[in-house]
C-alpha cells in the first residue's frame, strides 16, 4: 500500500511538472518573431528528432499498428496541429492571460466527450472543483477581454484551438489504451509537424534563414512545453482519464500570467494573483475527490502481448 501511495504521489508530482512546462509555451512564442506556423512546425520536428534515438526500442509496436489506429493517429495529429496554429496565433493578437484563460474551457469539453464516448462517471465534488477553478480562470482573464479589434480575433482563435486540443485529448485517451506513450507521441507529433509543413508551404512561409536565437527558441519549445508538457500529459493518460489530465490547463493561466508579468512586463493585479490561488484550490478538489485508487500499471504490457490496458478513472 505504501509503494502504491508513493507511486500515486509521483504521478501527481509529474502532473504538476507538466503544468509548469506548458506555461512556458506562451512566453517562448512571444519571444519569437517567426510565423506561428513555422514555430509550431519546428517545435514538433525537433521533438521528433530528440525522440529518434529511442525509436528502435519501439519498432515492433510501430510496425503492428492497425489501419484504425493509423486513422485515429492521423486525426489526433491534425487536431494537435490546428491547436498549435490557432492558439499560438492568438498570442499575437491578445494578451497571454486572455488567451490562456480560454483554454479553461478544455476540461468541460473533454468531460462532455468522456461522458459521451467513455461513459465516464462524475460526482458533485468534481463539478464543484471544476467550477471553482473556472471561476478563478475567468477572473484572471476578465480584465484583458475586449469585444472588438484584434483582441477579439485572438480570443476566437484561442477558443477554436481549445476545441481542437479537446478532440486531440479524447482521441489520445482512446489510443493510449493499447499504445505506448512513446509510439503515440512520436507519430502524433510527426503528423502534426507534417500538417504544419504543408500549411507553411502553401502560405509561402520561409523554412530557413532564421537567426540562431530563433532556433534556440524552437528547441526550447520542443524540450520544455512539448516533451515535459504535452508528452508527459499524454503519458499520464495511462494513469488518469483525459478530463483529469486536461484540468492541468486550468493551472496554465496562473503560471503563464506570472511568467508574462516577470518576463514580458504584462500587468498582473492582486485580484488576478488571488484568482490563481482559487484555481489551484479548485484543481486540487477535482483531483482529490474525483479519483479512484490509481492503478499503477505499464502500457508496455500491451506491447508485450498481454492485452490493452484500459484508461484508469481518476
From TrEMBL:
It is a multi-pass membrane protein. Keywords: Membrane, Transmembrane, Transmembrane helix. The keyword Transferase does not apply. The chain crosses the membrane at residues 12-31, 37-58, 70-90, 96-118, 125-145, 151-172, 184-203, 215-233, 245-264, 270-287. It comes from the Bacteria. It is found in: Endomembrane system. Residues 11-140, 154-287 form the EamA domain. Belongs to the EamA transporter family. This is Drug/metabolite transporter (DMT)-like permease.
Amino acid at each position: 500500500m505504501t509503494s502504491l501511495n508513493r507511486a500515486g504521489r509521483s504521478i501527481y508530482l509529474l502532473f504538476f511538472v507538466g503544468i509548469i512546462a506548458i506555461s512556458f509555451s506562451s512566453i517562448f512564442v512571444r519571444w519569437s518573431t517567426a510565423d506561428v506556423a513555422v514555430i509550431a512546425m519546428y517545435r514538433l520536428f525537433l521533438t521528433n528528432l530528440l525522440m529518434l534515438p529511442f525509436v528502435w526500442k519501439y519498432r515492433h509496436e510501430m510496425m503492428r499498428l492497425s489501419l484504425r489506429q493509423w486513422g485515429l493517429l492521423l486525426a489526433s495529429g491534425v487536431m494537435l496541429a490546428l491547436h498549435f496554429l490557432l492558439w499560438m496565433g492568438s498570442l499575437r493578437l491578445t494578451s497571454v492571460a486572455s488567451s490562456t484563460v480560454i483554454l479553461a474551457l478544455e476540461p468541460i469539453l473533454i468531460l462532455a466527450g468522456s461522458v459521451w464516448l467513455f461513459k465516464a462517471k462524475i460526482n458533485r465534488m468534481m463539478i464543484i472543483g471544476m467550477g471553482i477553478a473556472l471561476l478563478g480562470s475567468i477572473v484572471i482573464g476578465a480584465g484583458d477581454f475586449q469585444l472588438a479589434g484584434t483582441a477579439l480575433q485572438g480570443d476566437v482563435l484561442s477558443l477554436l484551438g481549445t476545441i481542437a486540443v479537446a478532440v486531440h485529448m479524447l482521441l489520445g485517451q482512446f489510443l493510449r489504451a493499447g499504445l505506448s506513450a512513446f509510439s503515440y507521441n512520436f507519430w502524433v507529433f510527426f503528423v502534426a509537424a507534417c500538417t504544419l509543413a504543408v500549411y507553411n508551404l502553401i502560405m509561402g512561409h520561409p523554412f530557413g534563414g532564421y537567426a540562431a536565437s530563433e532556433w534556440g527558441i524552437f528547441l526550447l519549445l520542443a524540450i520544455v512545453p512539448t516533451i515535459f508538457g504535452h508528452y508527459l500529459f499524454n503519458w499520464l493518460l495511462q494513469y488518469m482519464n483525459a478530463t483529469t489530465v486536461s484540468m492541468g490547463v486550468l493551472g496554465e493561466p496562473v503560471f503563464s500570467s506570472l511568467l508574462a508579468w516577470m518576463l514580458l512586463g504584462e500587468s498582473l493585479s492582486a485580484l488576478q494573483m488571488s484568482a490563481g490561488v482559487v484555481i489551484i484550490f479548485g484543481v486540487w478538489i477535482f483531483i482529490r475527490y474525483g479519483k479512484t485508487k490509481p492503478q499503477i500499471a505499464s502500457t508496455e504490457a500491451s506491447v508485450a502481448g498481454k492485452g490493452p490496458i484500459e484508461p484508469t478513472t481518476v
